[in-house]
Amino acid sequence: MKLELKGITKKFGSFVANDHIDLVVEPGQVHSLLGENGAGKSTLMNVLYGLYEPTEGQILIDGNPVNFNGPGDAMAAGIGMVHQHFMLVPVFTVAENIALGNEATKAGGILNLDETRTKIRQISEQYGFQVDPDAVVEDLPVGVQQRAEIIKALVRDAEVLILDEPTAVLTPKETDELLAIIAQLKSDGKSIVFISHKLREVKAVSDLITVIRRGKVVGDADPNASTTDLASMMVGRSVSLSLDKAPAQPGEATFMIDGLTVTSPTGQRVVDNISLQIAQGEILAVAGVQGNGQTELTEAILGLQEHVSGSIRLEGKELVGRGTKEIINSGVGFVPEDRSVEGLVGPFSVAENMILNRYDQAPFAKGLAMKPALVAQNAAERIAEFDVRTQSATAAAGTLSGGNQQKVVMARELSRPLKLFIASQPTRGVDVGSIEFLHKRIVAERDQGTPVMIVSTELDEVLELADRIAVLYQGRLMGIVPGNTSRDALGLMMAGMGAEEAQGTDPARTDPESGDK
């Protein structure tokens, strides 16, 4: 089936998310859409899948114009989509999820899942999915849940399969398995639209790459193109993808976690007896698939979790039991994973956001009165230092791009002497050029002698920044390994294997560390 998009434009008020986009997906082709978060890739695919109505433009299948009034129309036309956040009901079985919306019934209106189970087994056998039709979705690993989503599309006879950021929640091993599945689907004549911002995966899987920037197609590229060339197309200028950093010169271990456990309101241990240390002048990266306790770990350090046991000490002082403001004032800088919700006050100005953690302290305040001139002076200096692209310091922070919002948060946290710096997902939703800048600032903070903890689900970022790497799986620490540990070994640890065993199965083994220095 040949799919064509002609002049697709999608506007939300005055904002143009897609600007006259042309795209052709040939039968049996893996066609990747490459672009930074916010470039318009997902919006375009939501138009194709019938979730959005295009403002302008036309969709053609085998040369014939089609109009989709919803996903049902798109599925009937042979288009399936696997969303970045899976559309599965956790308490239903795989078969129940796949039958949902297309239920077959027996006499008396009783649900008949036998035919659905048969189709699931047939497709699983054909593609090696190994998915049990009667397994409850919430009990399945994330990679298997994704396969269930793919089966859901194939059961409905999809000839074009849209995969939206499909590796965002997968371990490296699960990612490799997905890429093999895509190759098999392609050999079976299916067309794949692969949406991603990850250069390594796009190059590995694509027949053709279309690069989108700020809602427009900026060109097509061959998968043999260099990552540097692709990155330049994504951001519109030359960028460096490698970080030049000197080896760490770690000093005294001044930040220590001992036996830390965080319990959820339901009684589940979301952080399970973790112990680690970070020395002055080193970066410890916490790796793992999203949802394995990373968020709760950082929140416990900041005093944002209620049910905490164990010890967290900074320069010998206990942090457990202290309030968040007291912890921040003790010298902890923190960049949260969701800048728009937890890191910024959108309606406040850039200048005001630059002092959110010190608005009531000298030199920005005296008693109950703030000092506007000093607030403005600080903002001007930080805007210049961190290259924040804004019309003025008085502009609302919420009007800035994602990368510039992140720079505001980083500028605020790094503009005072720190005893510990924590950055969670420091470059999520940030363009390649801003990633380059932010990584350099993180390393510069390390080189000033600050203990640094980075939490990231991006394995490339972990390997780029880390002096040591701690891997979490289901709230437990699988081990702490050197920063040059192989991707394969880290992938095994992210799937629940201990550090020594994971490195022992890796042909490029690096000697394990105990983790504490």
TrEMBL record:
Record-linked SUPFAM superfamilies: P-loop containing nucleoside triphosphate hydrolases (SSF52540)
PANTHER family: CARBOHYDRATE TRANSPORT ATP-BINDING PROTEIN MG119-RELATED, GUANOSINE IMPORT ATP-BINDING PROTEIN NUPO
Protein name (Swiss-Prot/TrEMBL): Nucleoside ABC transporter ATP-binding protein
Pfam families linked to this entry: ABC_tran
Domain spans labelled ABC transporter: 3-239, 255-499
Membrane topology: Peripheral membrane protein
Molecular function (Gene Ontology), one example: ATP binding
GO cellular component: plasma membrane
Biased composition (Basic and acidic residues): 508-517
InterPro entries on file: AAA+_ATPase, ABC_carbohydrate_import_ATPase, ABC_transporter-like_ATP-bd, ABC_transporter-like_CS, P-loop_NTPase
Keywords: ATP-binding, Cell membrane, Membrane, Nucleotide-binding, Repeat, Translocase, Transport
Keyword Cell membrane annotated: yes
Region listing for Disordered, in residue ranges: 498-517
Annotated localization: Cell membrane
